[in-house]
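Below: protein 1.
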Amino acid sequence: MNKGLLCVIACIMYMPVWGQGIAIEDAGTISGSLQSDIQQYGQDSLIGAPDVPEKILSNTFFNLTFSKGKFSAGIRFESYQGPLLGIDPRYATSGNGTGIGMPYRFAKYADDNFDVTAGNFYEQFGSGMILRTYEERNLGFDNSLDGVRMKYRPTSGIEVTGLVGRQRAFFGLSDGIIRGADFNMDINQLGEALLPEGTFLTLGASAVSRFQADQQDVLKIPQNVMAWSTRANLRASDFSFDAEYAYKINDPGATNANSFNPGNALYLATAYGASGIGINLAAKRIDNMDLRSDRAATGFAQQVNYLPALTKQHTWRLITLYPYATQPTGEFALQGDVSITIPKNSFLGAEETMIAVNGSLIHGLDTTRTGPYTYDARWMWGSELYYRDVNVEIQRKFGKDFKATLTYINLDYNQDVIERRATPGEKIYGILNANFVCLELWFKTSKNQSLRTELQYMAVKHEEGAKKALQNGDWVMALAEYTVAPHWFFTVFDEYNYGNYDPELRVHYPNASIAYSKDALRLQAGYGRVRGGILCVGGICRPVPASNGMTLNITYTF
């Protein structure tokens, strides 16, 4: 933590004390937030819950920001005592080894044409294929940069960004130095006459490099790794088109088995939207595009770029056992989505009906090994299926007090690849097929009160001869959530793995919680079993071990 920057922030915060009675409203604005997630862990060997010696673990975050005019500054305190299960344990052992620290602090000046940030910051170039830094606490993910960032807007429609820094590595910093530049141009803001009326065009280009000393003698590894990308976004009438291409020089590291192949990625998407209908089509090809600030990092530690999954992000609880995570070493993905709204007073009755059909298909690349650290990758996909998903959702209102949603999902899931349970070409768990159905019903029971229920069913089949994981097999789930707006929320649910291949593991996972919300405060307490699995947010995933115990979540903003 930079002590000088802390002193500056502290002096500004306490201006009323030494400023001869200046009111805080005149001195500036202080805002912040608190989030604390606490979990108690009990023994439950039946569901595979690991033993937790501490019995109670917690993650806590406290943000404080000061702003006045063109200046702002802030700090964030974090405490992992110790990290919740599934969160990387290095949050408790890196840095000073206590799990407590202030890894995020910044000072920023911004006006209409120029801004500069010193300290920690988050940034994204284009869709993030060569640079995206952000925070996702549910995953234990924070890859902020610590350094200097400058933005310059010489005229309306043009923005240039430059940055240099080191990436956060838990409570420390990465060995690699990240340098980047981005150029973004909005043609419409440069002049209304440059494009036909109703047409909008944005162009951009980015470059990112990482320097990390080569401290091994076996391979001649590049110390400077360069990546660049170009992009375009076009909108005209009811159509839109997005394209982005990225390239990275060879970057041998822990995540690609020291491959000396260069990396590249292409993303194409088009959409059409008119009254009552929306159509989206997208394609993505990725080949060896994992970029880290430390070539030795694995998992999702010290990721520099972001490669979103080209799949629908399902939120129904049972099907989240099988979410897709982008495979940066190589994949070819296609996705299509059609949404139709049948208006009120149509052949279906007085209320509107919404129908959404979505499908995605992802294969590995067709590759041939050409050397110990090189391979040849053909343009189209190979024969190995990674993921396939077809889903339909129908939502219908029945007056003001009743709404129903019916969802069907059928997917194929390559467990060996997605969860990295086997080496390339090896089959252990193979491809499983899941058929999922959910009926969600919402009732308005009285003024400011409602009841929402979910009934879920999932059948799972495996390849012949494949090994069965702990929580595979058929499932059912029932949920009831009662809301007394605006303050109280009561939820109970039970998941039952009734079709587990091991009869002794056909167990229930009951859970109950109560939440209270008022103004900026939200409290939630719960108790029950939590099945293990994979938690994904935006295509980034982490394993979550099974657990049994109490939870307490507190959030407050001011």
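Below: protein 2.
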Amino acid sequence: MVAVPVLTQRECEALVAAALRDAADNCLELGRNSACYGYSRVDAAFADAVPEDFFVHPADRTDLEPLVKLQTGALDLTTDEWGVALLNVQANLPDTLPGQAVTFVLLGDTSLQDATAARAAKNFQPIPVTTTVNTNFRSGPGLNYNVVMIAEQNEALLADGVSPDGKWLRVIHDNAPGWIHYTLVKSDGDLSTLPPVDDTQYSPMQAFYLTTGLGQAACKEAPDVLLIQGPQDYEITLSVNGAILEMGSTVLFRTVEDKGQSALEITVLDGRVTLAPDANNPRPVIIPEGTRSIACLDTSGDNPLVACRWSEPRTSLSANWCGLEAFPADLLHYPIHAHCNGATPLIQVSNPITPVSSDILAESAREGNSLTTNPSVLSAVSSVSNPIECAGFALLRGGETMLSQYEWSAVAVADQYKLNLYGADGQIVASRWFPAGTTSVTLNIADFATGGSFQWEMEALHNQRTLCYTPRSSVMQRPGNPNAPVTQQVFTASCAYTSFAPYNISVSWANGDNGDVVTISATDTSFVTYSTLGFGSGDTIFINGGAFAFTQITVNTSTGKSVTLSGC
């Protein structure tokens, strides 16, 4: 066995400080969609042949477009090398915010391989547009997104993208991105040339495969890790080893060994991470600030892929991260808080990825985690920066009889609730949506084929994103035929004119489901579509139009029911 030299703490601190200081100097003012050779040693692979002296010295830079793989070197005690590389990644940040980028810092034995299947076109100029009326500025491309501000009539904006259906423009207003309907602006440019913007188009290195050193580092001050920090108060989307996630704002990624198997570890230093559902995780997984979670990796193929459920978030963070608090300010958007020296994380309760059980609590006790010992009084886990908003979100009653009242506590910032009903096999058999202010509903379990038992939970949402879940209810037995066919009345809709020129209509629907979110769209003879939302199994909504008659009205519910009317 070869003895590995061990540096003293002071020598480690000096080496790391020198490396980071030089990396900050070498990579100052790095442009967006670029990579920088920060400190020796950094290896890179490109899509095409490059000159012998390309990207081989500290301070060398390259565009991300041709970069295929980046590898920083582990600490070498004989040469005082410790690889540091810096990337500025666009991710899902709009082109019209050129000063903003997502910072990637590769430290030590860390490998990053681009997994972008198709690069989104970036070589285009935003198109100036002018609002024709006072215009709602929404957080997403649709009437189901909230209005964040009003753009006044004749306001000049820049449009840099269009929704996949071509009806919404992404624009910048007061240095913030948002969406307005294309009918509410005028432009001398050709808006059809704008690139579509959706969640499937990744910029270079927005999707990647990561591996880091699995062995013990020679000194804890020189970790092998990928640090990612986005602009504050802005969530970014990434694909990491096949896992799709939204993060804000400072997160560490590394591969570790867990029970003899390679695993991906995510540690949230600031903000939160929300992982999208997949084959192994049937609903979103939330990793709060000050916690870490791991999932096993399948390493049998060309690239490691997340292949199992994410663990319960743990509050015991590695001491290796404490040194990151001295990170040079020039490399980051804002300082790092590594939750060292006994700092208390924001959230210390169970994550909603699995029902809380005595087995989980026992494992948590063995791990030394700070979980409550009574699963019946667990609060919901928050996915927002202020966990107080979700404190106390819980099930109050429901499911005691076939027909019963289901009640839950309120979340102040929620604009929608969702009731999830699980069958005997543990899978969701139905979901029902409810508007803000609703904290109870009457349900007949006979309307759902659950099998011999069922459970239920509540989900609180804001702007179509999950804020928090309650724990699931206890398992409840169901009397009668558990798989009886559900008999439902036919969903109907109708409309009538309430005035002419301007044309205003009323749209009514009936026989929907309790808690339905109903989208009503009405298109007039000038091909302008007006849309609005309603709630419940039946109601009447009024649509104020313009100088043209309505020729087609569609009524769609969140549970899949739909009616199309040829006119009123």
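Confidence is low (pLDDT under 50) at residues 1-5, 118-123, 342-387.
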